[in-house]
UniProtKB/TrEMBL annotation:
This protein is involved in the repair of mismatches in DNA. It is required for dam-dependent methyl-directed DNA mismatch repair. May act as a 'molecular matchmaker', a protein that promotes the formation of a stable complex between two or more DNA-binding proteins in an ATP-dependent manner without itself being part of a final effector complex. This is DNA mismatch repair protein MutL. The keyword Protein biosynthesis does not apply. Belongs to the DNA mismatch repair MutL/HexB family. One of its GO terms (molecular function) is endonuclease activity. Residues 205-323 form the DNA mismatch repair protein S5 domain. Keywords: DNA damage, DNA repair, Endonuclease, Hydrolase, Nuclease. It comes from Alkalimonas mucilaginosa.
Length: 327
């Protein structure tokens, strides 16, 4: 199974940030309201993700580490939904084939926690009792230690950590209800408390995307039939020349979509200078059967069934909000 897992790992595990992405998504799937991430040496040495989610029962731990074991598919409908998100049920197995992975977990129903790690050529899973609050910690040590060719492709510590931090920013802007911490080499880099009220949410946006948001951002909230758009954008008077934040989410997932970017740019019109770029954090919600999410999860692309309608809605919602600010 080691080789098959390593081949699968080629798809899932591109760099440290892709490991963090899979592990954080698992934490969110487990219903965590707090996710703590510790990184050492850009993730090459250590990535530890701890959550306060539902945990994994002792008898399920071994299974969780094996390939194609997912507890998340219960119907065909589900299967289709999950396939559209990419490779499923293989993240833990793949990661543990290219790093030293251990899983420590305690569901609320258990008195003690258990730790599982897969070792050796045959990936024999070892189980031992451990101390851990309700929830799960996944520790990934020495990424690509057994695949030197891949290890060579890791960029500098700083670059790899930059990608992890960028990922956490994206996630923190999609889950205001979750508290996050991120540290690198023992130093705290981000500490975000759950943001429930609109004020707290704007504060989180300002922390992640620049102080300009807290005094100048324009709040958007608009609905047309089944389409909803909300979020913040900066008027050109508050936009600096260096590239700023551009975050758009479709049904809760971060997207980099040409049509949306075009609509946003158009809404600014002539007000935006030639040397300026739009700055925004925007959320678009529409019925799930109105969009296709690209099968490759890393590409962040969508296809809207009614592209014209979505485009025009975004332009009109944003330009009317910006219009009110324009002198
Ligand atoms: P998938 O997420 O696609 O199901 P993974 O390999 O990422 O596949 O995880 C395998 C299984 O391990 C999950 O289905 C889940 O049951 C369990 N699991 C992994 N991480 C966690 C976690 N942080 N909390 C609770 N359960 C988890
Ligand atoms: Mg997963």
């Amino acid at each position: 199974p080691q080789l098959a897992n390593q081949i699968a790992a080629g798809e899932v595990v591109e760099r440290p940030a892709s490991v963090v992405k899979e592990l954080v998504e698992n934490a969110l799937d487990a219903g965590a309201s707090q996710v703590d991430i510790e990184i050492e040496k850009g993730g090459a040495r250590l990535m530890r993700i701890r959550d306060n989610g539902c945990g994994i029962a002792q008898q399920e731990l071994t299974l969780a580490l094996s390939r194609h074991a997912t507890s998340k598919i219960s119907s065909l409908d589900d299967l289709e939904r999950i396939l559209s998100l990419g490779f499923r049920g293989e993240a833990l197995a793949s990661i543990s084939s290219v790093a030293r992975l251990s899983l420590t977990s305690r569901p609320a129903s258990q008195e003690t926690a258990w730790q599982a790690s897969a070792e050796g050529r045959d990936m024999q899973v070892q189980l031992q009792p451990a101390a851990h609050p309700v929830g799960t910690s996944v520790e990934v040590l020495d990424l690509f230690f057994n695949t030197p060719a891949r290890r060579k492709f890791l960029r500098t510590e700083k670059t790899e950590f930059f990608h992890i931090d960028e990922l956490i920013k994206r996630l923190a802007l999609s889950r205001f209800d979750v508290g996050w911490t991120l540290s690198h080499n023992g130093q705290n880099v981000r500490r975000l408390k759950p943001a429930m009220t609109p004020e707290q949410q704007l504060q989180r946006v300002a922390t992640l995307c620049g102080r300009r948001f807290s005094d100048s951002a324009c709040w958007i909230e608009n609905q047309h039939q089944q389409l909803k758009l909300w979020g913040w954008l900066l008027p050109p008077t508050a936009i600096e020349r260096q590239p700023g934040c551009q975050y758009s989410y479709v049904n809760g997932r971060m997207m980099r979509d040409k049509l949306l970017n075009h609509a946003i740019r158009q809404a600014y019109g002539d007000w935006l200078g030639d040397d300026q770029q739009p700055v925004f954090v925007l959320y678009l919600q529409l019925p799930a059967d109105e969009v296709d999410v690209n099968v490759h999860p890393a590409k962040h692309e969508v296809r809207f069934h009614q592209a014209r309608l979505v485009h025009d809605f975004v332009v009109s919602a944003l330009s009317s909000a910006l219009g009110q600010l324009q002198p």
